[in-house]
Write the structure tokens for this entry.
Amino acid sequence: MPTFLGQNQYGKAENRVVRITRDGATHHIKDLNVSVSLSGDMDEVHYSGSNASVLPTDTTKNTVYAFAKEHGIDSAEQFGIHLARHFVTSQDTIHRARVRIEEYAWERIEHSGEGDHSFVRAGQETRLTQITYDGTSWEVVSGLKGLTVMNSTDSEFWGYVKDKYTTLPEAYDRVLATDVSARWRFHWSDDAEDAPDWEESYAEVKGHLLRAFAETYSRSLQQTLYAMGARIIDHRDEIDEIRFSLPNKHHFLVDLAPFGLKNDNEVFFAADRPYGLIEATVLRDGCEAKIPADLTNL
Amino acid sequence: MPTFLGQNQYGKAENRVVRITRDGATHHIKDLNVSVSLSGDMDEVHYSGSNASVLPTDTTKNTVYAFAKEHGIDSAEQFGIHLARHFVTSQDTIHRARVRIEEYAWERIEHSGEGDHSFVRAGQETRLTQITYDGTSWEVVSGLKGLTVMNSTDSEFWGYVKDKYTTLPEAYDRVLATDVSARWRFHWSDDAEDAPDWEESYAEVKGHLLRAFAETYSRSLQQTLYAMGARIIDHRDEIDEIRFSLPNKHHFLVDLAPFGLKNDNEVFFAADRPYGLIEATVLRDGCEAKIPADLTNL
Amino acid sequence: MPTFLGQNQYGKAENRVVRITRDGATHHIKDLNVSVSLSGDMDEVHYSGSNASVLPTDTTKNTVYAFAKEHGIDSAEQFGIHLARHFVTSQDTIHRARVRIEEYAWERIEHSGEGDHSFVRAGQETRLTQITYDGTSWEVVSGLKGLTVMNSTDSEFWGYVKDKYTTLPEAYDRVLATDVSARWRFHWSDDAEDAPDWEESYAEVKGHLLRAFAETYSRSLQQTLYAMGARIIDHRDEIDEIRFSLPNKHHFLVDLAPFGLKNDNEVFFAADRPYGLIEATVLRDGCEAKIPADLTNL
Amino acid sequence: MPTFLGQNQYGKAENRVVRITRDGATHHIKDLNVSVSLSGDMDEVHYSGSNASVLPTDTTKNTVYAFAKEHGIDSAEQFGIHLARHFVTSQDTIHRARVRIEEYAWERIEHSGEGDHSFVRAGQETRLTQITYDGTSWEVVSGLKGLTVMNSTDSEFWGYVKDKYTTLPEAYDRVLATDVSARWRFHWSDDAEDAPDWEESYAEVKGHLLRAFAETYSRSLQQTLYAMGARIIDHRDEIDEIRFSLPNKHHFLVDLAPFGLKNDNEVFFAADRPYGLIEATVLRDGCEAKIPADLTNL
């Protein structure tokens, strides 16, 4: 046969697990979407269909639910670490496990009834993490997606290259809006070291990201992106690298002159497509980039 | 020709308008998605293609943007009233206008920079309104969609009809979760009467809805639905009718017995499809139902 | 209590059922998404939470799967009729049943292996039907959504009303494109009459719809809509009424003049939002409109 | 500053271009979604906000539309090659261009009117290509997504690893269904060599993929995946590598025993989540893998 098998991985994707912890009438909730992907000695299942080395994806699903009971879910990161370690250490044929988790935030509903077990989904960004383990070292990349932000002023865009296809007028006061998609890699990789406080880290990174967006006077979305990344790395020792994918959600000033009206940066058309897309990695000095350049490959 | 024209309407849908109001360095933002639908003397355009009675949909779009400048956007409801009145009173051939608006909420980003013009989209529910005007009277139906709520206890389901296809075990302590979709109709219909404070009304209705959900010990989602509706009508004189469409977002208790584990209402599988769907109208005594029974028709 | 219960309905939505029929090594497939909605003596479940009149939604789900075995699925319409009749006639507390079905089409994969049991999903439009039964008479409304069509010429738009907000230039040769969403109501309502051949009817309606779109020289999308509806009613005696919701998927001619190029109706920008939305009903002479005017209510 | 800039790229994403070619009354159509991503000397725009090296994303959009006129669109691949070459060779600061294209297929509507300029969107899979150029060599990766296929028999799954979390019963006759997502890399990389016939290549790859799926008796989805990849590489000399991402769209046999019915592989529940996810690369002997392992990174 003139062909051979390259990189391969398999598992159960999008296991939706909700874990409730009861502290008397006060309940706590974790709401995750867990995807497991395993690699190892899998040549035969591809070449001949023999499943002798294959732990079924159904079993990986069962393990997610069983571990939610056995280990609880302190954080998405810690839960992913439990799962990844289990698959690699318990199965001879599995040499690498990658666990991806989406987390949906819930807030408490304030009310005057008894107990504290009523929640409303926050609905802002989706929290993300990806745990990869090869039996020796860990890679933890966390992040978020769907965090939509806007500065209604303090953004300019001018002084750019002009070629024969350039028609864009320069802008000295524009709206800057984006849906932040970010992934950040933790320095931690070794069981012998203390792991970060994953919950605190997430809250702090999100806070720095938002404040850097708000406090940066922007001459390009690239500049804002870099300011966000640099601020996070400056303030959070546990993070070595961060990558952003920032769509420039264009808000076009509507031409009201035909109606005898002046639009003094008041009325905008929020466009869907096309959109600018700005992507870059910010690294701590001395560190190597490991987060892939593309969030999607086609 | 053995056929004739029935009800018809046309207009421009999903005009995305963002209105920024500047109060010095403090900005305010309204972010709407506006759909206009007009009816009137439109037989000829259907029968022969003559557009002599047709105000172009492009013009309705322009009007949305021009009105955002001319009238500002105090509330989605007030903005829709301006638009609907304009189309019916300014065009001889237009006899009814319906304006539907989605509103996306933004929160301020707290930061230590200058000015107050940075925002993050709230992302929870989408606020809705629909204004209908026939030149004489108004119908205002507001609402929301995508408000996801959960009670992790205080919900039961038992004592139901059992036929030969019934296998469901009775539940005495279950999770109750739903994505609230609600539409409420205001009593106001006449220009001679004072209109409600649309912004205050929305905030209050949402608050009552959430608290009623949290405070109701539930023996069925129908009971919870009614409690939510009744509480709103009890507390808000401006509302005569409210309709809910509540998917029962099933959270199935995972069977962990095969793994030697007891699942004491701790670990749940959040299912996608199928889902229960509970829909009902709650009315003020003496009022007539006008909100359609179905949020979607196929 | 100053409130009372209005129209209400409940059931299990989006039951995904795939039915395979084996004719030796030749298999046949039906792929449906079935939603059941029941109404009847349901006051108590709303007022007090008593489920004594409630057939669980889980049971309606089970019934869908059991009926797929017991009755097979000759057509979505026939399957819905079986289900609706069952709920109304077998339960004292259920007085109306409505069954909505989406159907996904599959084509056979041509190959040189043995047997004929390999399929590829067609992916074009989604077929729809809605069966309503009150114990006495039937209403069958079928339809489709997501059928995207385009005429690259033979479309004009001019001679329309111009007001102070009108800027649109008249067009004498434009692209006309839309995603057809249509619902048609059958005359059949009585068990004593022969029911139509549902499968043949669907194929014929779709064919007439496409050909009418292609063969109509269009001066407005309204004219094209009416031509499509009239042709169907002219050719299909079993149908009394049809309603269309047609987004005008704008294809804007790109201005290439800044680049020294002439755009002779060759290069278009396919826009997302906003879009024109044209909705109308076409009726057979003497028939009354029963399909709701709006496919969505907010 | 203790941070530095890593990989970065920018451009205009999702430019929706429709190109009509008129051959008398017979029209031809190409419908693309084009995303441009550029890299080069972009440190300053990130560090200081200087745009002196930045060709605006708006200009890349204009270039897409101008090139649709100047070069036409023979194939998505050829169009992407024109664009990528232009950006790298015409701009001193741009050293790499990547063009990603989605293509939507249209079929002709058969009718009895004059002319041949009416189309219906095929709606099956979306065709993909990605062109990367660094001024010296080319990488062309084409593919497809959303091709949903099903074998209603000739699939088994047994003989797998069982651990303490395994509950899955072995299956000797199951439904095998997946949404094929595939990317294949062409050998061609050098302007001095003849490029493949891109249109013919796509049609042939899709055909082999479908037939391999249909003709493979499957003992695991991995085996089917490999058979599909090997067949394509065996038959198409122009392709060196292919990667698949195949969700196992579970069709669960419904337990009808509680209703006294036997389900002889006739009635299935088509589940949404979770799903198995099988991903692997198949390579030509002697070739190196270049397609990224992950279609999405979180």
Remarks:
- The domain at 8-136 of chain D is CATH 3.10.270.10 (Urate Oxidase).
